[in-house]
Design goal:
Layout: H1 6-17, E1 25-29, H2 35-43, E2 48-53, E3 63-67, H3 75-83, E4 87-92, H4 102-123, E5 124-135, H5 141-150, E6 151-157, E7 168-176
Helix pairs in contact: 1-2
The structure holds S-adenosylmethionine.
Enzyme class: transferase
Function: Specifically methylates the uridine in position 2552 of 23S rRNA at the 2'-O position of the ribose in the fully assembled 50S ribosomal subunit.
Catalytic activity: uridine(2552) in 23S rRNA + S-adenosyl-L-methionine = 2'-O-methyluridine(2552) in 23S rRNA + S-adenosyl-L-homocysteine + H(+)
Length: 185
Amino acid sequence: GYRSRAAFKLKELDEQFGLLNGVERVVDLGAAPGGWCQVVKQKKPKARVVGMDLLAIEPMAGVDFFQKDITDEDSEALILATLGGPADLVMSDMAANTVGHKQTDHLRTMGLIEVALDMATRLLRPGGNFLAKVLAGGGDGQLTAALRREFTSVKHVKPPASRKGSSEWYVVATGFKGGAAGGST
Ligand code: SAM
């Protein structure tokens, strides 16, 4: 079985977009308990997978886990060094730990997505893909604009396994333009 219900969401997103086709290097931001990593390894046993989370993660064959905040200054360098080359897919299922104040929670989660995107622009190979959980409503217009600058195609989707009433959506950005001058922001 899978370590998380989230695993089914990645499976559905892969079926729809072929995100895991041919991947050799994958980055999983906010990886605990490891369901997404399981789905990647199941489809691509030889893929090099690097996962990072604030929480400890049970070891998994062929996956490098780091218990670390992705916003730490040295996190990106650590991921890159462990990957051994540019990533085919950077994915983030991160949500900020909620403090119970709706706007604050929303802003904090959007902040994490921005960090993930910023990292992705330096970790991905040209043509690579980015998948991230986003929250519906408010504040994501700028994110979408940034994604459109960096990727050929940007789609917002709600996989069937995602609870209907939840504000959780996923953004699937494919075809990293790469190499162009300037960063994501
Ligand atoms: N995709 C995972 C799976 O299938 O097992 C589930 C991920 S869970 C929904 C989101 C994770 O993001 C949590 O484990 C949380 O600890 C992590 N997270 C939140 N903020 C983080 C940060 N700043 N750095 C690293 N991980 C973070």
